[in-house]
């Protein structure tokens, strides 16, 4: 934005007003419950899972929850023991998830990544579609379940936005 527009030297009030609204007026925050956010997230499958690398960089990758979308503050993803995801979470368990959905819905989740190798727990989150990546199911050598435990959830849909802190 040019200094002329901001200083009032330009005679374009609508553009100045729009600039001011976008940069100085926050939309009212409409905080939701976890159940309300879970309802909005029901059809979101693919997330960008972001971890911290050993060099302090951020690394993101798309992950599918494979239809395991009854959201209770935990998200579940399968990967392999030798993946960067596992090595990153082992060194720094602070992660984030980013979702984009229909009708302009965006959700970010900041939380803690946990690595689960307990087969009965993995079985609870297993769906047949995973067999194309893990040929022996939960008995595939090196399969790991990543659980992301939410600490903070932010969402946006149009002018509706909010944040939920999870204890």
How does this model look, in words?
This protein has 167 residues and is of the alpha+beta class. The protein has helices at residues 3-7, 13-24, 34-41, 84-91, 119-125; strands at 46-52, 58-64, 74-80, 94-101, 105-116, 143-157, 160-165. Strands 1, 2, 3, 4, 5, 6 and 7 form a seven-stranded antiparallel sheet that branches. Strand 1 and strand 2 form a beta hairpin. The longest helix is centred in the first third of the chain and has 12 residues, at 13-24. It is globular and about 45 Å long. Mean pLDDT is 83; it is low at 1-10 and 20-29.
Structure described in brief:
The protein has helices at 3-7, 13-24, 34-41, 84-91, 119-125; strands at 46-52, 58-64, 74-80, 94-101, 105-116, 143-157, 160-165. The chain is α+β, with helices and mostly antiparallel strands and 167 residues long. The termini are far apart.
Topology:
Elements: H1 3-7, H2 13-24, H3 34-41, E1 46-52, E2 58-64, E3 74-80, H4 84-91, E4 94-101, E5 105-116, H5 119-125, E6 143-157, E7 160-165
Antiparallel strand pairs: 1-2, 1-4, 3-6, 4-5, 5-6, 6-7
Apparent shape: globular
Q: Secondary-structure element order, as H and E?
A: HHHEEEHEEHEE
What level of helicity do the residues show? 10-25%
Low-confidence segments, given as residue ranges, are: 1-10, 20-29
Straight-line N-to-C gap: 41 Å
How is the main sheet built? Answer: 7 strands, antiparallel
Fill in the keyword field for this structure:
37% strand; alpha+beta; globular; 167 residues
């Amino acid at each position: 934005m040019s200094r002329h527009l901001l200083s009032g030297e330009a005679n374009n009030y609508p553009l100045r007003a729009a600039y001011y609204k976008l940069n100085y007026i926050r939309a009212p925050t409409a905080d939701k419950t976890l159940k309300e956010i879970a309802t909005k997230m029901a059809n979101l499958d693919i997330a960008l899972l972001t971890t911290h690398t050993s060099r302090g960089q951020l690394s993101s990758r798309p992950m599918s929850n494979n239809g395991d979308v009854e959201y209770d503050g935990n998200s579940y993803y399968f990967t392999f023991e030798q993946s960067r995801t596992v090595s990153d979470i082992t060194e720094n368990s602070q992660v984030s998830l980013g979702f984009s959905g229909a009708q302009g819905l965006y959700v970010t989740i900041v939380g803690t990544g946990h690595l689960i190798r307990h087969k009965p727990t993995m079985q609870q989150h297993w769906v047949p579609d995973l067999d194309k990546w893990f040929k022996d199911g939960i008995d595939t050598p090196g399969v790991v379940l990543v659980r992301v435990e939410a600490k903070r959830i932010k969402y946006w849909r149009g002018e509706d936005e909010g944040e939920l802190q999870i204890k």
